[in-house]
Specification:
This protein is an alpha+beta fold. It has helices at 29-43, 59-69, 76-101, 190-196, 205-224, 229-245, 251-258, 271-279, 281-284, 299-302, 323-326, 346-351; strands at residues 7-14, 22-24, 49-53, 111-119, 123-132, 134-137, 144-147, 156-164, 175-183, 199-201, 248-250, 290-292, 304-307, 313-316, 327-331, 337-341. The protein folds into two domains: 7-201, no CATH class; 203-354, no CATH class. It has twelve helices and 16 strands. The strands form five sheets. An eight-stranded antiparallel β-sheet has the order 2-1-4-5-8-9-3-10, sandwiched between helices. Strands 6-7 form a two-stranded antiparallel sheet. It is elongated and about 95 Å long. The N and C termini lie far apart (83 Å).
Length: 363
């Protein structure tokens, strides 16, 4: 199917206290640029999760397929507009149902739903972005007004990709439909994914937790464990801390948490190169970049055992706060390599409180 690249945009005011939505034309230069920037940020957002429609009879699926199937129609703009109204009404219904079912929870705030369609030849991208309305004091009459925030990213988004697969001889045409969802909150709101999109995650939180930790730890191990052992220990400890302490995984937040302003002990190793390799996992690893973490799924992976001597092993069971101040390598006056471990347990301390003046026991 050959298509011409076009873009349509529609904006709808959504308020769960209202009886219907209000459609606004995106026809000014500022509005068009606003939508373009928002959609670009949405489609390039690294913190996302893969979903799929539960079945082909859900309302939203039917609306976007109607747009796809009539792209060649002379009245495609009207078809797009009418389906967008249905999509906006669907979101309003989902928000109203949430308010009704959970009256004591924070309700969805009023805002706008921006819908765009990008025709990319053999692929149609339908992008949905919900933005909260923001109040501001305008500087001429000093009156409070409301509108779409300029610098605030979309709160909830969904990018629906419909791709025409290559036709094989004597076989029916096949379509591939994919959804990527984002939410600026710690978790993806149920009313957005369940009630509005009627979609389910492709990968479970448990599997995402396991796959993400394994992939990131592998990059640290391959690039630091031999080349910069102490840096590997510190950064891996930070990774364990992130997975153990944070309720949800956001890829960008993870990068900041683990690497942050960390300064390498081994300055011969370029930390930015390691960080770039972690970022490249987005292109090849099978884990979402926004999900609720399940630490128990990888509890055993948090443990690390170090063989000190043939008779002694040091094992850490999880993240250690201020690791470098708890366990340190040093040398004594005789030049012997030793490990210093800070402890608060008196019993353990007394178990090794030897008198330095005593003679060594014979072998």
């Amino acid at each position: 199917m050959t298509m011409t690249v076009t873009q349509f945009a529609s904006l709808h005011y959504i308020n769960s206290n209202a009886s219907s939505t209000t459609q606004r034309e995106v026809n000014t230069k500022d509005a068009i640029n606003y939508v373009k920037q928002l959609i670009q940020e949405t489609q390039n957002n690294p913190n996302k999760r893969a979903f799929a429609f539960r079945n082909s009879t859900t309302p939203l699926f039917e609306y976007v397929m109607d747009i796809f199937n009539q792209l060649k129609s002379d009245s495609i703009e009207d078809i797009f507009s009418s389906n967008c109204i249905k999509i906006a009404e669907r979101l309003l219904l989902a928000e109203k149902n949430t308010v009704s079912k959970y009256p004591n929870m924070q309700h969805p705030r009023k805002g706008s739903l921006i819908i765009t369609a990008d025709n990319l030849g053999d692929e149609l991208l339908i992008t949905l972005a919900k933005i909260e309305t923001a109040d501001y004091l305008e500087d001429i009459h000093l009156q409070i007004q409301s509108g779409l925030p300029i610098n605030k990213k979309a709160l909830k988004t969904a990018v629906i990709s419909i791709t025409q697969l290559e036709e094989e001889e004597e076989e029916e045409e096949e379509l591939e439909v994919q959804i990527t969802v984002t939410d600026s909150g710690s978790t993806i709101a149920k009313y957005w994914s369940d009630d509005f999109l009627e979609a389910s995650e492709l990968t479970s939180d448990e599997k995402n937790t396991k796959n993400a930790f394994t992939a990131i730890e592998r990059v640290l191990s391959q690039n630091l464990k031999t080349q910069a052992p102490s840096d590997y220990t510190e950064l891996r400890n930070g990774l364990v801390g992130y997975f153990k302490k944070q309720p949800s995984f956001h890829f960008e937040n993870m990068i900041d948490y683990v690497f942050g302003n960390y300064e390498m002990e081994n300055t011969q190793v370029n930390l930015e190169n390691v960080k770039d390799k972690v970022k490249k996992l987005l292109e090849k690893e099978k884990f979402d970049t926004h999900f609720t973490m399940v630490p128990n799924e990888i509890k055993a992976r948090f443990k690390k055992t170090y063989k000190v001597t043939d008779e002694i092993e040091l094992r850490t069971n999880g993240h250690i706060e201020n690791l470098r101040h708890i366990i340190r390598a040093s040398k004594n006056e005789q030049g012997e390599k030793i490990l210093e471990i800070k402890i608060e347990n008196d019993t353990i301390y007394k178990s090794f409180e030897f008198n330095d003046d005593q003679n060594e026991r014979p072998e």
